[in-house]
Design brief:
There is one protein chain. The chain has 3 helices and 8 strands, in the order αββββαββαββ. 22% of the residues are buried. It has helices at 2-46, 83-90, 117-126, and strands at 49-55, 58-64, 68-70, 73-79, 93-100, 103-114, 141-155, 161-164. The protein has one domain: Pnp Oxidase, Chain A, CATH 2.30.110.10. A hairpin with a 2-residue loop joins strand 5 and strand 6.
């Protein structure tokens, strides 16, 4: 009887720990989703951002304007014929920066290619003006999503705010 009670108590303690861990994991996932939405909104409000890649040992920076959330991931879009695509194919690590009023954001992470027609179509639907140059079915359209994303929002009047996503 004593062993049964001890076993029951151990099972209840394990279940409580597992439930607590599950709740923390869900809270973390919700926080990352909310952070991603904040990052996306900031970049859309800014209108354009500058994305930095590496070309050998030379940094390369250019303006981008597409930013989109699809299937729980933050996406950008480019053309596979462009140098930026070739650079990302060799090294997906990027950093981007945008300025809005007196606040700016820096976003770092790794961009991963997504060849799915659904992801391409979703992004192009969000930016219909691009449909004159790109198609979800063509061989040139490239959409990439962030992994290990970390955004930091800065201003001259407040402490930096980190937003992992």
């Amino acid at each position: 009887m004593k062993k049964t009670l001890l076993l029951a108590a151990a099972c209840m303690a394990f279940a409580a720990t597992a439930c607590s861990h599950l709740a923390e994991t869900q809270d973390s996932a919700l926080q990352k989703k909310q952070n991603m939405e904040k990052v996306c909104a900031f970049l859309k409000d800014a209108g354009h951002y500058f994305i930095a890649t590496v070309d050998g040992d030379q940094p390369r920076v250019r303006p981008f304007g597409t930013i989109h959330i699809y299937d729980g991931r933050l996406y950008v879009q480019t053309g596979k014929k462009k140098n930026v695509s070739k650079q990302l194919g060799k090294n997906g690590k990027v950093e981007l920066c945008a300025l809005k009023d007196d606040t700016w954001i820096r976003v770092s992470g790794t961009l991963v290619n997504d060849d799915s027609v659904e992801a391409k179509a979703s992004l192009l639907d969000a930016y219909p003006s691009l449909k004159d140059m790109y198609s979800a079915e063509d061989e040139n359209t490239q959409v990439l999503y962030f992994t290990n994303g970390l955004a930091t929002i800065y201003s001259f009047t407040a402490d930096p705010v980190e937003l992992p996503f």
